[in-house]
Amino acid sequence: MMTRVLASVAAIFIATTALSEDIKLAVTTSFENSGLSEVLLPAIKEDIGLDVQLLVVGTGQALRLGQAGDVDAILVHSRAAEEKFVEEGYGTYRREIMYNDFVFIGPAADPAEIASSSSAVVALQKIAGTAPPFVSRGDDSGTHKMELSLWESAGLDPAEFADWYRAVGSGMGASLNTAAGLDAYILADRASWLNFGNKADLALLFSGDPALFNQYAFLAVNPEKHPHVRNDLAVKLETWLTSPRAAELINSYQINGETLFTFNAQPR
Q: Of 58, 70, 201, 259, which is the most exposed, with the fewest CB atoms less than 10 Å away?
């Protein structure tokens, strides 16, 4: 009797395993740090039988993995870089999935007084004027690209800030840890900040500027460039990520009562 039971269990396990397929998805560290993957991945496995293997890197590295055909799809947040990826033929198209926003974090005492800023550019100008410690991800991520774009809009060059500007070349969580240790200012995505456990004396000081809008998009790697990629699975995953089921999970994901992402995928 026990032998038959064990055989049945083994058969069920084998059958379940056979139904699962693996897909490699490069995602940003901010997406991983938000904790949303822990909600979405089990649901994806349950609903469509996909085991999503995440490669957690900055947006720039995620795009390079796609260019090399090392992943089947990417989920990143830097529109200009994404559009270039598609224009150069590495991606089939760009599909928006969800958004949140970037925020300025800094010492609760706010020595640069950025909390009263009228815009993100003004916040950076105040930081540059007082020269407190500032941590940059410095890793070619979507967050880093946004930060550099804001400095440029402010008419400032971080290369001139050697005394107080720290480019750490790390993911969002590690960069926030550095900022906590230095009691420094930093640009972060809201989701990573809300899910960050080591806040120390840091606080969210400035947000709400439309320039800080943070869109996440899904791009399937072009099988014409890399015939080995699983485009069929990428399309399957995209269909799920743009479904009402995904919308419900994304919109309902909260930390301490705050929503981290808003679903905004549109029908094709």
A: 201
Tokens of 133: 């410690």
Per the DSSP assignment, residues forming a β-bridge with 140 are none
How many whole angstroms separate alpha carbon 8 and alpha carbon 165?
62
- The answer to whether residue 31 sits within a structural domain is yes
- CA 141 to CA 143: how far, in whole Å? 5
My answer on whether 224 and 193 are in the same domain is no
Task: Say which CATH number the domain at 150 has.
Answer: 3.40.190.10
* pLDDT value of residue 242: 98
pLDDT one-digit tens code per residue, 69-88: 999 999 999 999 999 999 99
Amino acid identity of 80?
A
In this structure, the answer to whether residues 37 and 122 fall within a common structural domain is: no
Give bridge partners of residue 99 from the DSSP assignment. Answer: 215, 262
For residue 180, is it within any domain? yes
Three-class SS of residue 253? Answer: coil
The secondary structure of 16-80 as a DSSP string is HHHH-EEEEEEEEHHHHHHTTHHHHHHHHHHHH-EEEEEEEE-HHHHHHHHHHT-SSEEEE--HH
Three-class SS string for 41-58?
HHHHHHHHCEEEEEEEEC
CA triple 154-159-161, angle to 5 deg: 80
Rounded Cα distance between 164 and 135, Å, is 9
Decide if pLDDT at 114 tops 80. Answer: yes
d(Cα 249, Cα 201) in Å, to the nearest integer? 32
